[in-house]
Structure formats: structure tokens, C-alpha cells
Protein 1
Amino acid sequence: MPTQSKSLRIPTADGQADAFAAFPGGGERHPGVLMYADGFGIRPVLRELARELAGHGYYVLVPNFFYRHGPAPVIELPEYIGEEARGAVFAQLMPLIEAHTAERVLRDADAFLTFLTARPEVGPGPVAVTGYCIGGLLATRTAVAHPGQVAALAAFHAPVGADGPESLAKLTAEVHFGHAESDLTPEGLGELNQALEAAGVGYTSEIYPGTVHGFTMSDTGAFDAAALRLHWERLLPLLGRTLDRGGELGRSHRR
């Protein structure tokens, strides 16, 4: 499906967040997806992911959640983030990540969802949130805080359990968590899945075999092409079940 894209500015309680949006052409309305970038932020690989998802019939909004520190890219990034570059890049990013408190996340989530659902290209009904790395935690916090509005949550190589298992109790969205093998032990996966089970939501939560943190990002040394394909194989059916059918939640529990 041919897509269009544009740069936008989202009004927030603390200023304006720059953002990237991708959506199908043709003037029709489509379900909305709020996509949170990884810690490296909006850059060509994120725009590519957003465009690919938009090509399946979704309006995809990617906000710069570090907007308080400037427009994306907030720090200068190499074209390829290999092992030799990661240390220096993270040394610049960590103060920004540490300053991005849960309070800020939720305040911004309100603004991002309000903006997304008001777009003329977005149809009525529930939306999905998805995210990568730290963006997966932001997506999880957004879904927990907006149970009546978010029908699907997907997070990849993300610290989704950072707020504790009890933080997932208010989830109503159907969930997919795709974990890196280097990020989560089988025991940790079991504890996380027990929390999802207790929440009573439909979910898949699995470790992608042989992966390291950041496996979806083709501009990093962590990239795994097979895992990226698996990411699409999990994400697209999830959105199809929860958004294309008017937000009806799938209830099958698969691990």
C-alpha cells in the first residue's frame, strides 16, 4: 500500500514535541498506532519501520520523547552504531533517559494520544502502542494508563517489567512482548508472564532465540534479520485482531 509521511509538532504540557508520521495515501481513515522509538530516537531506521507498518493500513505516529532537550536527533549519531560506538553514544543518552521520569512519560502519553486520535487520517475506535528498547517501557506505561483507549500493546527488547509485576495489573490491551535472549532469563520470563496471566489479558511473551538487545534495529550491531521478521509476524496479526475488528480483544493466552 503506497504511503505518505510528514513531520509534525505535538503540543504538550511542557512545549512541543517534534514527530514523524507515516500513513496510507488515498485520503481514507485508518487505525492509529503510537510508536515509541528506542533510546537512539527518530532516525532513518525508525522512519523505515513506521513506513512499513503504515503500508499495512495504519496511521503511525512516532514522537520525539526527548523533545525537552531539542529536536531529533537529540544527539549526533553515527550512521552505524556498532560496539565501538555504543559506549560513547550511551554516555550522552543516559542523562536524558534518567531525566525522563514516569511522570513525564504519562503526561506526554496523554498529549500524544490526544494528538493521534484527532488526526483527520485516523479513524474512530481504539489505538495501539508499540515501542522498542526504552520505548517499549514507555508504550507499556501508556497502555496501562489508558486501558479504555489502547487495545494493543507490543514491545520489543524492552524493560517492560521495570515498574514491577503489579504495574501490569491494570492492563486491558492484548499484549505481545518480544524479548532479547540477552535481556531476560527464562525465570524472569516466567515471572513476567505470571503477571500478564494475573491481569487476565490475551498475550504472547517470548524470548526471540539467539538475540541480543536491539535486535530490530538494522543500523546497530545488534540487528538480527530473522528476529525482525518474527517481530512483524507477531505485530501484524496482533494489530489485525485488535484494531481492524473494531477493538475486539483476542483472549487466547499463548506463550
Protein 2
Amino acid sequence: MTYKMTRKADPKVGLVVAGVGIVVFGVLLAIGFLIGHPVYLGILGFLLAFLAMAIVFGRRAETAAFGQMEGQPGAAAAVLQNVGRGWTTTPAVAMNRNQDVVHRAVGKAGIVLVAEGNPNRLKALLAAEKRKMARIVVDVPVHDIIVGNGEGQVPLKKVRTTMLKLPRVLSGAQVTAANDRLRAMGDLMSNMPLPKGPMPKGMRMPRGGKMR
């Protein structure tokens, strides 16, 4: 299934992966004949070729997956769900009627607000969310990331690595306390009567209405 998905976005993936395997195996086998140990080097070449093929395929599959996700509503939330252990993610803590969205992740680096949508509108949305949190959590660093490929933005495929590079300044107990306070504050999805499942295309917030 992963190969089929990757091949749709990267038609040459099969040839590239096979080529890598053949080259690695061929080089080591040739070295084996030169030094008089073709069997040993052949076995080693087979193992290393398989490893190289797996690595190359994994990277191209990841690139293809991000390429298909990029620009899709909720793509950043999907990435946040796979950041790793130690992070608690809450999708869509803030949203406007244009479907610009802010997601929240809490970990030892503090609070990270990840926003996707129109960069100009997102600045106001992020500022409002920070003011709301400032009343609930104190002495907790807050970072914000706007997903995109423009200046000052972070590409979707680099969101995870950007978050993992943030300095860890909170203890486990502080992270738990911050999460408890933020849960008590509530979030967009728990306070609004939204239907379950994917958001219908073209859905707009009512004028004058705000999601909190």
C-alpha cells in the first residue's frame, strides 16, 4: 500500500530503489572477487543493498506523503500527531470562518502553536490564542509556527524537526500542570457543536461568530 501511494506521486521510485540495490550489491561483489572472498562480500553486499533500498524507499515515501498532504486542511494536525512521545497535541484550538486553523502541542519545550492557512490572518489568530492562554498558564514558553514555504514560515515536512530542536525547559510535572490548565480552559472542538468527521468543503463560520 505504501509503495502504491508513493508510486502515484513518484513514478520512478521503483527504478531508483532497484538501482540503488543493484549498485550496492554489485560494488561489494566486485570487491569480493578482487580480494578473493566473493561469497562473504556477496552476502554482505546483499544485506547492505537491502538496507540501502529500505532507507532510500523510506525517504522517498516520506517525501511523497508530505507532498500529497501539503496544502490540505488539517495537514499540520496530522504531522503533530506523530511528533513523538512527550508531546500532547490538541488540534484546532482556534479557527476563523476562512478555515485558518491553530493547533496546540505541549511538551518539555513549552507550548507550541502550529498555524496553517493565510499568513496575514493567522497572525491575529495566534495573538488572540496567546492572550487567552496568558490568563491560564504562566512561566511557560510559547512558540508559534506558521506552516508554509514563505519567508519566516516552516515547510510542512520540517515542522516535526523544528519542534524537536526546541530547548527543553520544563519538567514532566510542569508539562502535566500546563496540560491540565489548558484542558480546563477548553478548546474549539469541545466547546462548539461541530459535526463529527471531516469538515465539509466550503464550510464557513457565521458572521460575527467566534470559535473559542
